[in-house]
Amino acid sequence: MTASPVPVAAATAFPAPGRRLVIYVVWDRRGEVEDHIPYALAGLREHADRILVVVNGALSPEARTKLEPVSDEILVRDNHGYDIWAHKHALDHLGAEVVEFDEVILTNDTWFGPVRPYGPVLARMEERPVHFWGMTDHAREEPNPFTGRGVLHYHLQSYWIAVRAPLLRSEAWAAYWRDLPDMPEYLDAVLRHEVTFTEHFASRGYTHDVAFPCGDYPTDHPALFNADLLLADGCPTLKRRPLFHWPPFLDRHGVIGRWTMADVDRYGYPVELIWRNLARNVEPKVLNTDAAMHEVLPEVDVSYDPANPFRIVAVLHIFYVEMTDEMLDLVDTLPGAYDLVVTTPDASKADEIRDIIARRPREGRRVDVRVLESNDGRDQSAFLVACKDVLISGEYDLVLKLHSKKTPQDGFNVGRHFKNQQFSNLLNSPGYAANLLALFQKEPGLGLVYPPTIHIGYPTMGRGWWSNKPGFERLSARLGIRVPLDEISPLAPYGSMFVARPESLLLLVEHDWSYDDFGGAEAYRDGGLAHILERMPSYAAAELGYHTRTVSTAEYMSISHTSMEFKLDQMSSTIPGDSVDKIMFLKQAGYVGQGRPRDFVRMYFHLHPRVGRLLGWSIDESHPLGRRLRRLASALRWKRR
Hints:
Strands 1, 2, 3, 4, 6, 7, 8 and 9 form an eight-stranded mixed sheet that branches. An eight-stranded mixed sheet has the order 11-18-16-17-15-12-13-14, sandwiched between helices. Helix 12 (271-281) crosses helix 24. It is built from 29 helices and 18 strands. 42% of the residues lie in helices and 14% in strands. By secondary structure, the protein is an alpha/beta fold.
């Protein structure tokens, strides 16, 4: 005998006056609270009778102080089960009290807002008689892209689901949370909750709606692919993911984060909250790519405000005295006054440099030429050791770091290009320099500006870490840098020249470095401290909430883009598919090595893992049969001689 279906209470509109509860989940790797969170909650305050914040993991006293004015209660729990189990924790904590509310909004910190006002959206949805509703949704897909089989059901996105009283009071609701499965991995949270929640209750007769249905947009996932269109239609929330997702995937779908951020700025949202959050929690090169944070600056001043000048110090490390005039020509493009600090390895060079500077007076400029105790670490130690007092003095708003660069070991053309790539993209002309400084005027959270990654004449692409990543990780741990590291190459000032806010560099500058830390001349190589530090400024700045922009002249962008486009075209020609397909194919195949037979065999095994599991022993140097096979092959080669 078939059991009778459980009756479903009729759906209701939100009554006037009604009571609304917001359950908002926070997770932060540092136990802190990013500034976009109290901003989001403050905006919800007028629309909610109660705001309950659940913190997954630790919560510092300072973070609690940020949350208390915009919430009624704060729960701190162990970080397990993601935001779903945090919502369960809150519902269990409330118990029967939850049915006193006409609507409960389950949400989290994975979005920025309100970019557009909450009020009109809430008012529109309040009129609709439903059991639950979402801010955005995702269309049905077959097969399920996460598993490659089955169906991905249509679903409301779990970052914002509002539940009305009839569902809150039902046995179906209680049973769902009582029987919620464990979710040890992110994919569990997606497959066991987000993509099943809507179908679970819809199949039991509960009705739902969505504020911004995907059917009104040109893709099945508008929160990721059409954020700009959602905002244009009044959506108050901007998901973080379009600004930190894997760049080739966003490239495949034509998602342009720079345009979205321009819209956000135009709507009046304080974009510095977004930059700070993303800088601290997203790989810098990923963010630089997703948000297209490269600026091609004009040679005519179009943006600098002379009424708000910066106090600037130019720190020049000069080894090649004959480059002094050239470097001073660059620094003299800065608008207004600046102070000059020069470091050099010996007294005779210092005297020559002083004479050159004396022949080039500049109004308002203070000059300090310093002779280094040691040249170990070169420009890195000169900056962090010899000029530490300047950088922590608080006298300056910006520091310009340059050094006399020739790289003669790489050949004349390559060395010349590298030097010009650094010099011209920082200080090409007075107008250009003014526009560069204007970036700092516009963005208080901008920490560093420097030229893009060098790639002409150097195999930097795909090898930017070289052998520096292990040492970088160890040093980051010592300095308290918890910003995620980029996988392939870091976002870094290769060539070690930049303009920065001194406070963005404090994690590096305040550390007690010594010349002995850098080792002798033989230590100036990849894996050595100087090369590790060359890659660190953007990560150190990001830990403190400062973001980075790269800059170039229009001429250099013409040179760089055409070269990079041709190289990418050549490397892509023998691999099928679009950029995502090509990259995933190469990643699965693994390192090409020297193109020896065993390298191709290893790649074949990676691309065909079932075969690899059966025959992988044949190239495994630690496997007895593999060693025996190699000895046999070696003997056969010897006999053929």
